[in-house]
Amino acid sequence: MSIVSKENRIGIIGSGSWATALAKILTDNGQHIHWWIRNEETIRHMQQRHHNKHYLTSVYFDTSLLSLSSDVNAVVAACDEIVLAVPSAFLTDVLDQLPSSALEGKKVISAIKGLVPGNNQLINEYLEERFQLPPAHYFTITGPCHAEEVANEKLSYLTFSGVHQEAAQAIADKFTGSYLQTIVNTDMIGVQLAAVMKNIYALGAGIAHGLEYGDNFLSVYITNCFREMQAFLEQYEAQKAEQRGSEPMVHNYSASAYLGDLLVTCYSLHSRNRTFGNMIGKGYSVKAAQLELNMIAEGYYASKCMYEMNKQIGAVMPVAQAVYAILWQQVHPSEAFLSLEKGFI
Ligand SMILES: NC(=O)c1ccc[n+]([C@@H]2O[C@H](COP(=O)([O-])OP(=O)(O)OC[C@H]3O[C@@H](n4cnc5c(N)ncnc54)[C@H](O)[C@@H]3O)[C@@H](O)[C@H]2O)c1
Ligand SMILES: O=P(O)(O)OC[C@H](O)CO
């Protein structure tokens, strides 16, 4: 266990499963954290009973390492490094409470796997526009990693990305511990987009399971999703490179943040997206599946964002298109999957 000094003022925004898992990782390393929790009752429970009453309830905290607050301004003001771990759908609601100067001189580490709904921006694009956050002060945490396995201290890997490798490494070092290995790269944009897409594909994997397709189909489905993910990223990079007048960024698709996260989210029974999709495949409405899950499946929002974004990019994405049609255009799941079956290679 690495012991980190109290002078590293780090804050976590959010109190769902992932925020709670990240809080565990940091406090297990002896790190003091400032933690924004939306609900006062959850804060009181955490102070009295030392755990989050709603998420990862088996994780107990040394509360002397926690400064809890429902005031997001106070948490951000108290910290130099801020970890964002709210679902993408609520990000702007939460950060709209901050003045535009709130992130001046601070580093922001996004653990969110989603785009900003409405304008389909990457999280760094939104932070740059809204808070003038410079790219060098932005980092991402991607997977593959489920909060539930962190809670059980099962060996897991997180990927830290930033413009500068050394700065990303310094952030990653705070999280590295006995059950948590870290991987560091400078591929900040590619890993974010891959994380958004794998949620859509995992939701589709759940739909396939709900429709009673088997493991043979699933392996072909995931292979085609992986190809589709690469096709989108290649086309996205080509367009961005043309706009910048520079060479396109090259992604390492076989890295864990790409293939690994796609696999774990499609296969794991912990996956919110797969579970949500399974219910849709079994005939639940979107509303009923949301109520039943009681957690956030990012792929639902992502399918709409990617559909909108791909109007500019123009990649061929039959799987993402089918998931969008099922969730947002009331196309019957079996009909959408029947047309997918024919096109797989
Ligand atoms: N759970 C994981 O294993 C995991 C792993 C990696 C990344 N992530 C990412 O972390 C982010 C958070 O996901 P999660 O799994 O912690 O979600 P979750 O479903 O466990 O929790 C949902 C959170 O949203 C909050 N919430 C609900 N309504 C809200 C509102 N109106 N305003 C603000 N907050 C509201 C809830 O209080 C709760 O804290 C997502 O982008 C997800 O993709 C999750
Ligand atoms: O539970 P899911 O489906 O949101 O996926 C969680 C993580 O992103 C897996 O790395």
From TrEMBL:
Subcellular location: Cytoplasm
GO terms classed as biological process: carbohydrate metabolic process; glycerol-3-phosphate biosynthetic process; glycerol-3-phosphate catabolic process; glycerophospholipid metabolic process; phospholipid biosynthetic process
GO cellular component, one term: cytosol
Residues that coordinate or bind sn-glycerol 3-phosphate: 113, 143, 198, 261, 271-273
Annotated residues for binding of NAD(+): 90, 147, 272
UniProt pathway annotation: Membrane lipid metabolism; glycerophospholipid metabolism
Binding site for NADPH: 17-18, 38, 55, 113, 147, 272, 296, 298
Segments forming domain Glycerol-3-phosphate dehydrogenase NAD-dependent C-terminal: 187-336
EC number in record: 1.1.1.94
Gene3D superfamilies named among the record's database cross-references: N-(1-d-carboxylethyl)-l-norvaline Dehydrogenase, domain 2, NAD(P)-binding Rossmann-like Domain
Protein's UniProt keywords contain Lipid biosynthesis: yes
Reaction catalysis annotation: sn-glycerol 3-phosphate + NAD(+) = dihydroxyacetone phosphate + NADH + H(+); sn-glycerol 3-phosphate + NADP(+) = dihydroxyacetone phosphate + NADPH + H(+)
Gene Ontology terms, MF aspect: glycerol-3-phosphate dehydrogenase [NAD(P)+] activity; NAD binding
Entry-linked PROSITE patterns: NAD_G3PDH (PS00957)
UniProt keyword annotations, A-Z: Cytoplasm, Lipid biosynthesis, Lipid metabolism, NAD, NADP, Nucleotide-binding, Oxidoreductase, Phospholipid biosynthesis, Phospholipid metabolism
Catalytic residue list: 198
Residues that bind substrate: 113, 272-273
Primary localisation category: cytoplasm
InterPro entries (alphabetical): 6-PGluconate_DH-like_C_sf (IPR008927), 6PGD_dom2 (IPR013328), G3P_DH_NAD-dep (IPR006168), G3P_DH_NAD-dep_C (IPR006109), G3P_DH_NAD-dep_N (IPR011128), NAD(P)-bd_dom_sf (IPR036291)
Highest taxon, organism lineage: Bacteria
Function: Catalyzes the reduction of the glycolytic intermediate dihydroxyacetone phosphate (DHAP) to sn-glycerol 3-phosphate (G3P), the key precursor for phospholipid synthesis.
Family from the record: Belongs to the NAD-dependent glycerol-3-phosphate dehydrogenase family.
Stated name of the protein: Glycerol-3-phosphate dehydrogenase [NAD(P)+]
